[in-house]
Input
Amino acid sequence: MRIFTVLLFLTIMACLPSALLQFALSKGKVGKRIKRRGLAKTAIWAAPALFLAVFIGLSMVGRLHLADIPAPVGEWYLWAFLTLFTPAFMVALCYLIDLLLSLIFKRQRRLKVMEYIGTPLAVITLVCLITGAATRHDIKVREVTISSDLVPASFNGTRIVHITDLHMGNLTPEKPYLKRIADTIQGLRPDMLLFTGDLVNMSARNGEGKGCVFCPVETRFGRYAVMGNHDYGDYVEWKSEEEREDNLRRTYRLYGDVGFTLLNDTAIYISNGIDSIGLIGTENWGLPPFPQYGSLSRAVEGFEPARFNILMSHDPQIWDEEVVRYPYIHLTLSGHTHAAQMGVERGKVKFSPSQWIYDRWDGLYTRSYDNEQEGQALFISRGLGYVGIPFRLGMLPEITVITLRAK
Output
């Protein structure tokens, strides 16, 4: 049912410009000449017909086995569709509004909604889609400082590099981008590298055979990771339950292959020989429609909290729903939102469509307790990869350096 709904939407979006173009041309001399030219008339409908045929083809293959489709094929198809037809649809829609208003108010001349509104919007949209594709790999390094009385003095100045949402399998070109990520991280001299999920986009196959991507990154305390919602293969129609379970086992193994120690509902201590801090990891914990595989209570069962404790959990919604009941978790690291892969941040102005979905969607958030206990902090990274289309505009891919400071 969902496929037919999407197909209907794409059909309207692709065919409306062609229909109105044929209508507009048929009213003039140029249109009459085109009508007599079968090839020219066919050209008007060639692009929508081709794109819709490709969509139907991808949908049929996807229903057979979505994991077999190279992810960039679908991603770039959708980007090309939006880039070609969204501006055309805007112009066509405004032209249609022009015609309707002329009929309603019985005007001989159009109001020129198309010229004054439709065309500028189309140009802006086209520029944004092209720019977003061009800047999809423009990595930004963000610096964050966490100051707390509970950070042990011997951990003062510890540099934690936090990355998330890589979505291997979507990235094009992938190999040079992965190398640039690893080289950038190494240049930041991290004491610890933490990854908060969505290593792959659809299945383990997306990341297999890429080598130990993060092994060149030398750290003092290690490289650790947790799973994200995309890592479980839930967006693939598997042929059998056995195949799904095999994919999950391969994904667990993949995390180790690329250089991470996976913390599945586990808590450990990071020691420097003098003091320790706690590091807790949960499997994905989200609110519907996202899965809840993780359990924070299971992760900390038998764990004696350290003086300062860090939680890694992919979906930031766990912070308000669960972490609030664990005051000894002082810093939570998450990803998941991508900051919608688009937005504006200029000075005090910060906007992204992500804020229409999530209360907390990017950056650092804090809260304190009435009994004057040390408060909690949540940091949400925009991530390094992308889903939907190969596109990031304004909310660029990022690597975050979190420096711990003892007050």
The first strand starts at residue 140 and ends at 148.
